[in-house]
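agent> Task received from the user: take the single chain below, predict its 3D structure, and emit structure tokens. No templates, no multimer pairing.
agent> Plan: (1) validate residues, (2) run structure prediction, (3) serialize to tokens, (4) report one or two observations.
agent> Step 1 OK, no nonstandard residues flagged.
tool_call: predict_structure(input=
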Amino acid sequence: MATSAAPAPSQTCSVMARVALGLSIFAFIPPLGIAAIVLGHTAERRIDASSGTLDGKSLARSALWIAYLQLAMVSVAGLVLWNLLGATAVGFRRDAAVQRYLRETEHTQPLDPESAQDAERTAKALMYQFISIEEEARRYSDSGIYACNLDVMLTAGMKGASEAENRAFAARVAESPYTFTISQCNPRGDGSQAAGYTLVAVPRLPRMPTESKVFCTDQSGVLMQVRGGTSVDCLKHGEPAN
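)
tool_result: status=success, residues=242
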């Protein structure tokens, strides 16, 4: 029974060199470039070991040159593109509109538990400052009236505080994940209603956890709190803040 003859070594090396040359044309695709280099070196090594009995070395050498050259060009192009993308990303992040968008996006992201606790403590401290401002307005103003506008309170700040301290106070209020609201404000009182106000600090969701503290106060100057409720809950049955 006849059997097919195995390909001669010269034919194997020649085919290997041709395949390497064909793959080298597409060496800008890394897997094909690596395959071309492997086949090219294998063919060249076998040809060198044959002491001149095998041919195809020029094809193998051409495949290697083309493959190495294309891979080098791809590497340089990739490095340039990476640096360009990095520089673009840095410039993009420095853009004023992008910075504003990032800040706005950041202010809508939920806080981690530790940051949420810090925000609660800060909101309580800010409420005490608002209470002090209202007491000063009532005590020291010419008409003896409460301030019924948060913007006016933030602009006036604390008596005796420096301008920088008052700006810092306003910034902390603006950046807080709490919403501060003053309502039911009767600045000087009349025959039917005594002078007073209601001030609340409500956590903004989803920035703050749902069980965060709500703070509230009125003209009594006593700061109350309730956890996980509403401003109405705080005003009706809140407990003194501690």
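agent> Step 4: summary for the user.
The longest strand covers residues 178-186.
agent> Done.
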